[in-house]
Design goal:
By secondary structure, the chain is mostly helical. It has one domain. It is built from three helices and no strands. It is elongated, with a radius of gyration of 14 Å. The mean pLDDT is 84.
Length: 66
């Protein structure tokens, strides 16, 4: 099953989330993306990456409902 999510929307959500976290934590604009999405056990912030997580979560939900 494939969930229909416009990639642009999910990427925009990723960008907004990173921007707000950067502002809140007072991180420099040069902070690498991997720092946001890496698990906390590996030294990252463990944020969800919507462009990867949302379609998979949607597919899992559709499988359980069907």
């Amino acid at each position: 099953m494939q969930a229909d999510y416009p990639n642009g929307v999910l990427n925009d959500l990723n960008n907004v989330l990173r921007k707000e976290v950067r502002t809140w934590l007072k991180l420099p604009d040069s902070s690498m993306k991997v720092c946001f999405y890496e698990s906390t056990g590996k030294g990252g912030l463990g944020l969800p990456q919507f462009s990867l997580n949302a379609p998979e979560a949607r597919d899992n939900t559709l499988r359980r409902v069907a």
